[in-house]
Design the sequence.
């Protein structure tokens, strides 16, 4: 008897709702369950939100510091070189975070658009 090329079996539990959602996606794909999961595993994108979330929390703290500086000095010029440098650094960090967030959202949007386009069937005239 020939040995199977794929000889490892993977099992996991899901809720009934998750199972129904997975089955819908498998049905829409037109693939077998095995092929669906293999394709998802090989080409699917896993997004780690933990680093983005910690960065957003850090930026929230930075924005609070900036707000405190602006409320303290109001419309007076910031003569302190340290205060100006702090504000500049905070704004740079906020800018970096926005760029990361925009990149993340662009990837999500493209992934969603690609998935949606594959689902659409050409119109027949």
Sequence:
């Amino acid at each position: 008897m020939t040995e199977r090329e794929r000889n490892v079996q993977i099992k996991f539990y899901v809720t009934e709702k998750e199972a129904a959602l997975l089955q819908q996606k498998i049905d829409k794909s037109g693939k077998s369950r095995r092929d669906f999961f293999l394709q998802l595993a090989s080409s699917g994108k896993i997004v780690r939100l933990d680093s983005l979330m910690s960065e957003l929390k850090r930026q929230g703290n930075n924005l609070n510091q900036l707000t405190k500086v602006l409320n303290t000095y109001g419309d007076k010029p910031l003569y302190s070189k340290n205060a100006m440098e702090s504000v500049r650094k905070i704004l740079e960090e906020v800018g970096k975070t926005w760029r990361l967030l925009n990149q993340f959202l662009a990837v999500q949007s493209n992934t969603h658009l690609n998935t949606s386009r594959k689902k659409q069937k050409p119109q027949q005239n």
Remarks:
- The longest helix spans residues 81-119.
